[in-house]
DNA sequence: ACAGTTTCCCGTAAATGC
DNA sequence: TGCATTTACGGGAAACTG
């Protein structure tokens, strides 16, 4: 009879952080006739869970009973807000939970809600219970916790399979890619297009004709590190999500960040473009980084690709990315610096794409002359700095890429270059 | 018999922040013969203070009794560490404290320590009490709290005059300037020299032949805003102290920051120096800012002084100050930029002074070319940007300044230009 | 309305546990 | 020892409160 809406973290329901307030909404779906008495809701954490089933035990610090209020907006239903803290109960953990392998963010909990009322002499007990919750103690655990919530809700309809992560099912790439697109759509306002998802699928599963039916394990998604990197696929992807949210939102939403492109594809795309054509790509080697790559041509007409060291949140909070693109300079042999970035791929003049995000931060404070930070790379032309070896490219791949990625239709110059 | 050492904030004793642990040391100065029993110390907050005397009431959250331990290091004395939280007691504040005018950081509190033991059948009570404490709820109140602690301990020897800030005495500039110098010495490792203190005295008291015997009121020191500025003298000075601690420590300790110089003095000093001679000065218009001023000469030989927009902690955490000085460029009419900073006043070549603090942050990450931030000012030579009017200078002041500030003796080039 | 004050809580660093 | 997890708390911002 009651349908609990879940406690919320900033936009991330079903995750609760210890020591931080959270609120819960319980909606009574039956309409009680003439409710002039007060309906008390009692909330319990991990009510029915046998101790030892879970590694950590928690309790609700504040008063756990609240009286329901009428709420106008929800047409006659009753709702109630809880607002309380959660704190770990220190228990001498004799028999440590069943799964020593599970991490904290894989441990599932629940909130139970109970109410009792009597109508015409009949006592009625109501009880309901939340979907599985993840309890974290620091925001640094939020990505992991959110991965669990996503995986659970993607792969099961069971209301409370608390042992879910004891043997988590696999997800098909079809399912998973849809969820990943949703993540971006929900948190930034723009999802991922087919090409971007393809790159992600390839990163996760290797080169395949079609990823759709490939199965992705929970471990591969979130627990194992990417080969040669000190982070997992989801940690990497989430770091980019955070980077967009904090530093790249307007540019991302204007669809000016291709973002997820392999270095091979990048080269294939830029190869035949005008010198100074560039695109924006997220770093695959570092968490939460974005770089630009532009194409130049040697004297003998050969294409050369140069990428700048990725910018991370620290750098970007000193200088917004649009201003970096605007003012970026390369100085060769100490000669007059030049901004090598001319056209956003395929051919949008830089200022046309980013002009309205420029931040003319020239704040005139009278006796002083204004000063700004200019991002700059210094090259020594005697050193072949840019001769990074071509990454391996499978035969025929170039054509495939071309086919797959070419049909970008630009309607007006202000339009996005990467339609979905 | 007991001498309490005080609870500590990061280097700031006598200030306690609610919700944060603090520790206290109580030393028993008498040596007890054969103490084989345990001595319990009970700690009470604001023990004897009549309620209503203070606006806010607090209590110690954790267990307030602790058993003394022997401590080897303090030759046979007994010491004990308390470690507990302080939380405001919510009181329906019927009769609000005696002084509605007092701010939170002017409200004084105490910690009392009690112990009881019996020796040869005689029961002995010991009791002692801390110096007045300030309780704050956020670090943003730390500067104000610290000002109170300084003022109290500078101007009274009374162990517990809780109403001190009801009518706080004045300090002579002699006393105060000594304390200010100590502050810098204690928190940075380098104090303030006579010229720097002179500038501060002038800022606080106006131009006087001698400030020594001038009286500074508590209000002028810490409560009233500086004329035309939205902050008080101490808030301004403390913001600089923080800036030094976080971003300028080595340069400050090398004595390369003149820092406290009036604009008049600055011009007088730079006037006859080589073009490109510069000095470093703290901003008087903004909290926690540092700028450099350099001298150039017009075609007609007239000296021109240019100051850059002050750098604050945000800018400095993107780019350390030494690197700003190293790479700073001025671009006039889009022509090849040039670093106008040549000699640190009076004549130390820039790289000699700051070279060892340069941060060659060129981290080569293979496929990428490194990028750095270059601080740059752009000027349009058609606009007379630097023609800020000469600040007023009293007659004869120039000579006085010259006399007063000239005798800088430079022993070697690596030596500090501003000996104390 | 507003300023002084407190609360809230992210995010880094340090401490702790295993 | 190293890694996983929690605690600590500075600092910016929002909420509170007279």
Strand and helix map with partners:
The structure is a homodimer of 420-residue chains.
Chain A: E1 2-5, E2 8-9, E3 12-13, E4 15-17, E5 22-28, E6 40-45, E7 58-60, E8 65-67, E9 69-70, E10 78-84, E11 86-88, E12 111-119, E13 122-129, E14 134-136, H1 142-155, E15 171-172, H2 173-188, H3 194-205, E16 215-216, H4 218-223, H5 233-253, H6 263-270, E17 277-282, E18 290-297, E19 303-308, H7 313-318, H8 321-327, E20 329-332, E21 343-344, E22 348-349, H9 350-354, E23 368-369, E24 372-379, H10 397-405
Parallel strand pairs in A: 4-14, 17-21, 20-24
Antiparallel strand pairs in A: 1-5, 2-3, 5-10, 6-8, 6-12, 7-11, 9-10, 12-13, 15-16, 17-18, 18-19, 21-22
Helix pairs in contact in A: 2-5, 6-10
Chain B binds a DNA duplex (18 and 18 nucleotides) through loops.
Which two chains touch over the largest interface? Answer: A-B, 37 and 37 residues
How far is it from the N-terminal to the C-terminal residue of chain A, by CA? 42 Å
Categorize the overall geometry of chain A.
elongated
Secondary-structure-based class of chain A equals alpha+beta
Overall pLDDT level of chain A:
82
Main beta sheet of chain A: strand number and arrangement? 5 strands, mixed
What percent of residues of chain A are in strands? 15-25%
Record the strand order, biggest sheet of chain A: 19-18-17-21-22
Q: With helices defined by DSSP (H or I, 4 residues minimum), what is the helix count of chain A?
A: 10
What kind of assembly state do the chains in view correspond to? homodimer
Low-pLDDT residue spans of chain A: 1-8, 94-98, 384-420
| Cα-atom radius of gyration of chain A | 27 Å
* Overall number of strands of chain A: 24
Residues in helix, % of chain A: 10-25%
């Amino acid at each position: 009879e009651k349908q609990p809406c879940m406690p919320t973290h900033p936009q991330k329901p079903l995750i609760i952080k210890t020591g931080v307030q959270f609120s819960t909404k319980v909606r009574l779906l039956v309409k009680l006739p003439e409710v002039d008495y007060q309906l008390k809701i009692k909330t319990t954490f991990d009510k029915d869970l046998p101790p030892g089933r879970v590694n950590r035990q928690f309790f609700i610090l504040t008063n756990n009973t609240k009286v329901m209020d009428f709420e106008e907006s929800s047409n006659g239903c009753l709702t109630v807000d809880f607002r309380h803290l959660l704190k770990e109960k220190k228990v001498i953990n004799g028999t440590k939970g069943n799964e020593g392998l599970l991490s904290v963010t894989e441990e599932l909990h629940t909130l139970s809600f109970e109410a009792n009322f009597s109508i015409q002499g009949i006592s009625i007990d109501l009880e309901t219970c939340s979907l599985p919750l993840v309890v974290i103690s620091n925001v640094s655990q939020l990505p992991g916790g959110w991965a669990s919530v996503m995986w659970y809700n993607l792969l099961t309809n069971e209301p409370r399979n608390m042992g879910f992560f004891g043997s988590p099912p696999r997800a098909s790439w079809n399912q998973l890619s849809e969820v990943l697109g949703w993540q971006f759509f929900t948190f930034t306002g723009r999802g991922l297009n087919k090409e971007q998802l393809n790159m992600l699928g390839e990163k996760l599963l290797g080169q395949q004709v079609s990823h759709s039916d490939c199965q992705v394990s929970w471990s591969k998604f979130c627990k194992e590190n990417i080969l040669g990197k000190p982070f997992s696929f989801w940690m990497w992807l989430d770091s980019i999500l955070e980077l967009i949210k904090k530093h790249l939102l307007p540019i991302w939403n204007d669809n000016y960040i291709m973002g997820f492109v392999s270095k091979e594809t990048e080269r294939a795309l830029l190869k035949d473009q005008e010198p100074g054509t560039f695109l924006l790509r997220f770093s695959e080697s570092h968490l939460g980084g974005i770089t630009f790559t532009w194409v130049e041509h040697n004297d003998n007409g050969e294409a050369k690709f140069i990428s700048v060291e990725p910018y991370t949140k620290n750098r970007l909070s000193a200088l917004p990315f649009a201003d970096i693109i605007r003012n970026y300079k390369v100085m060769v042999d100490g000669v007059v610096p030049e901004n090598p970035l001319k056209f956003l791929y395929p051919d949008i003049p830089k200022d046309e794409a980013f002009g309205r995000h420029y931040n003319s931060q020239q704040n005139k404070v009278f006796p002083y002359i204004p000063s700004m930070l200019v991002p700059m790379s210094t090259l020594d032309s005697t050193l072949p700095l840019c001769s990074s070896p071509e990454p391996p490219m499978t035969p025929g791949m170039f054509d495939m890429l071309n086919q797959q990625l070419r049909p970008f239709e630009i309607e007006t110059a202000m339009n996005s270059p990467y339609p979905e």
